[in-house]
Amino acid sequence: MRTSELIFKSRREVPQDAEASSHQLLLRGNYIRRLTSGVYSFLPLGYQVLRRVERIVEEELDRVGASELLLPALHPVEIWRATGRDAKMADVLFGVEGKSGSFVLGPTHEEAVIEAMSPDIESYRDLPKLVYQIQTKFRDEPRARFGLMRTREFIMADGYSFDVDRDTMRASYQRFYEAYQAIFRRVGLKAEPVEADAGSIGGDVNHEFMVASSIGEDHFARCRECGYQANIEAARAGERAGVPVARDIEPVTYSTPNAPGVEIAVKALQAAGAEVEVASMLKSMLLVGEAGQLVLALLPGDRTLNVPRGMRLAEDVEMGDFVKGYIGPQGQSSRVTILADPLVRTRPSWASGANQEGSHTVGLRLGIDFNVDRFENLVVVQDQDPCPHCGAPLELVRSVEVGHTFQLGLTYSGMLAHARFSTVDGQELPYWMGCYGIGVTRVPAVIAQQYGSPEGDAVAWPVEVAPYVVSVVGVGATKDNDVVAVARRLHDLINAGGVSALLEDRDVSTGVAMRDLELIGSPIFCVVGARSLANKMVEIRDRMHDRTTLVPIEKAPAAVIALSRELTSECR
């Protein structure tokens, strides 16, 4: 390929809303173009990167025995109602009204794949089945940002497994899990598999594949001592030692008008002469379980609640006799389950709401003034919290999610009467499922963030995703001199050797040419210069390791091809 034939026009200026360096680079390098907020066109260079990522996904999933299919993006809303996810995911669903009914633009495909596969799974002899697709998805994100990192239309590779029982489901899960590790190695990303929360997808065991990134919107907790890793929703801290209850004090109630929040309540109590701080306040937060039961969650005032699965914060209309902003654990009705984080054991007494408007109580003692029905990890972990496995300090790592794998079990098949197979003894049972997703359009942005310059004006793509592995450029070239002839010959020989090469043949200055080639991002540059040519040498730049070598002209194609293979092997 020649640069004169590319659809390419580099940009010096980028929109001010392009905050991330990866977003700036993909715009400057003519990889993508914004159509509207959260929706992008892939231009030829960007589409080449995207297709290379897709091919790696296809190769690795084919290798573990999965078969590729393609499911519709447009779903009848009835299949979503059957699993209750029309309500559960209502905040991100794009609804479409058609002449023949109501539809959903699929944000995920669990229901659709069951509809497609269930007629072919009648007996235990038909299992296991592993399938995958690469398909466009739609989510009505409230805040699209960072270019391809968070969009409203995106491409995902999603896999699904169907098995006879839990053990075979776990075996299928392991096959996808290992395939995902291979995929991320090949695209050049160090993706850490961490324990995760299932969210709206559901299921039991699941892992997110997280890449450390300065622009990540997620975090995961990591223990360097024992290797424990979990995302911020699933991470749990180890217990700290408890302290004796303060038996030599009695609770005192203070008037705190217009002070319903923790911080404002602390100021009001301090003004009234009480010795309190945010960390000694007890948050008492009313939750509602799936069956409508009331749960009062207790945690320190300086920590954030991690709402337990199957529960949600109570709405104002559900508060009943509870005084919003002034709830305390003391004197609660037996119809309310009191759930506390283990940190509630780490202080001799607490301050909390007095269960009456405009009042707080200081000196509440666990086991004397209030009781707890059950202790459970309720707080979002913080840096230096103890690891739940070994007690060493945890660290939080800012990161981007690039993949997610789920052991769904019977989450969907158990709700759908037709998701059944006949066992060896003639029973009709639901099959066990797993699902597995990779954000294909997000991957190029994560790679660009990792391998691009902080200024967003240069990148060295990993060899397996680069639009062109080698860029050949003549320094001091004119139309008919030896530099041009040698550059053309090297370009042709490298291509003939099976390595994609791009020849810089435009009538532009060397500075402009090199600036543009750094945006195009070949990991290898082959530079033909009049000075080196006098010594019958060519300069080869390995941009992944920032090293340059001079090789004889006749050996240059073989040296470039060997370097390409070396860079490929590093990612496998």
TrEMBL record:
<dbReference type="InterPro" id="IPR006195">
    <property type="entry name" value="aa-tRNA-synth_II"/>
</dbReference>
<dbReference type="Pfam" id="PF00587">
    <property type="entry name" value="tRNA-synt_2b"/>
</dbReference>
<keyword id="KW-0067">ATP-binding</keyword>
<dbReference type="Pfam" id="PF03129">
    <property type="entry name" value="HGTP_anticodon"/>
</dbReference>
<keyword id="KW-0648">Protein biosynthesis</keyword>
<dbReference type="InterPro" id="IPR002314">
    <property type="entry name" value="aa-tRNA-synt_IIb"/>
</dbReference>
<dbReference type="InterPro" id="IPR007214">
    <property type="entry name" value="YbaK/aa-tRNA-synth-assoc-dom"/>
</dbReference>
<dbReference type="InterPro" id="IPR045864">
    <property type="entry name" value="aa-tRNA-synth_II/BPL/LPL"/>
</dbReference>
<dbReference type="Pfam" id="PF04073">
    <property type="entry name" value="tRNA_edit"/>
</dbReference>
<dbReference type="GO" id="GO:0004827">
    <property type="term" value="F:proline-tRNA ligase activity"/>
</dbReference>
<keyword id="KW-0963">Cytoplasm</keyword>
<dbReference type="InterPro" id="IPR050062">
    <property type="entry name" value="Pro-tRNA_synthetase"/>
</dbReference>
<keyword id="KW-0547">Nucleotide-binding</keyword>
<protein>
    <recommendedName>
        <fullName>Proline--tRNA ligase</fullName>
        <ecNumber>6.1.1.15</ecNumber>
    </recommendedName>
</protein>
<dbReference type="InterPro" id="IPR002316">
    <property type="entry name" value="Pro-tRNA-ligase_IIa"/>
</dbReference>
<feature type="domain" description="Aminoacyl-transfer RNA synthetases class-II family profile">
    <location>
        <begin position="33"/>
        <end position="552"/>
    </location>
</feature>
<keyword id="KW-0436">Ligase</keyword>
<dbReference type="InterPro" id="IPR036754">
    <property type="entry name" value="YbaK/aa-tRNA-synt-asso_dom_sf"/>
</dbReference>
<keyword id="KW-0030">Aminoacyl-tRNA synthetase</keyword>
<dbReference type="InterPro" id="IPR036621">
    <property type="entry name" value="Anticodon-bd_dom_sf"/>
</dbReference>
<dbReference type="InterPro" id="IPR004154">
    <property type="entry name" value="Anticodon-bd"/>
</dbReference>
<dbReference type="InterPro" id="IPR004500">
    <property type="entry name" value="Pro-tRNA-synth_IIa_bac-type"/>
</dbReference>
